[in-house]
Design brief:
The protein is mainly alpha-helical. The chain has 2 domains: 3-38; 48-103, no CATH class. The protein has 4 helices and 2 strands; from the N terminus they run H-H-H-E-E-H. The chain has helices at 3-27, 32-38, 66-75, 90-102; strands at 79-81, 86-88. Strands 1-2 form a two-stranded antiparallel ribbon. A hairpin with a 4-residue loop joins strand 1 (79-81) and strand 2. The radius of gyration is 25 Å and the shape is rod-shaped. 9% of the residues are buried.
C-alpha cells in the first residue's frame, strides 16, 4: 500500500475518533465511541507475487498476480521451464550456459 493512502487512512481514523469522542462527551454515553469503530478504516495487506530463482534464490519483479509476475520476469530476462515450473535469473542462466560451454 502506498504511503499517501496510509496517511489518508490514518487522518480519517483520527477524525472519526475525535467526532465520536465529542459525541460521547456531549451526550454522556461512553458506548457512542464504540460506534466510531464501525466507521474506522483498516488498511488491507497487499499480497505481491514474484518469481524466485531456483539457482540462487533471487526474487524477480513484484506483481499483483502470478501471471503478471511471470510476464514481467520473462521481460526482465528470466528463464521459465513450464514442465518443471522452475525459474532462473539471468545471472544463473549465464553461469549455467558458461558451465555447459566449458564441458
Amino acid at each position: 500500500m502506498r504511503d499517501k493512502s496510509i496517511i489518508a487512512i490514518l487522518v480519517y481514523n483520527i477524525i472519526v475518533v475525535f467526532i465520536f469522542a465529542a459525541l460521547a462527551l456531549l451526550f454522556s454515553y461512553w458506548w457512542i465511541v464504540l460506534f466510531g469503530i464501525l466507521f474506522m478504516c483498516f488498511p488491507k495487506t497487499v499480497k505481491y507475487h514474484c518469481r524466485v530463482c531456483d539457482g540462487c534464490g533471487a526474487k524477480g519483479p513484484k506483481a499483483d498476480t502470478k501471471e503478471e509476475a511471470l510476464r514481467l520476469a520473462l521481460i526482465a530476462g528470466w528463464t521459465h521451464n513450464p514442465l518443471s515450473d522452475s525459474d532462473y535469473c539471468p545471472e544463473c542462466r549465464a553461469k549455467d550456459f558458461a558451465n555447459k560451454t566449458q564441458e
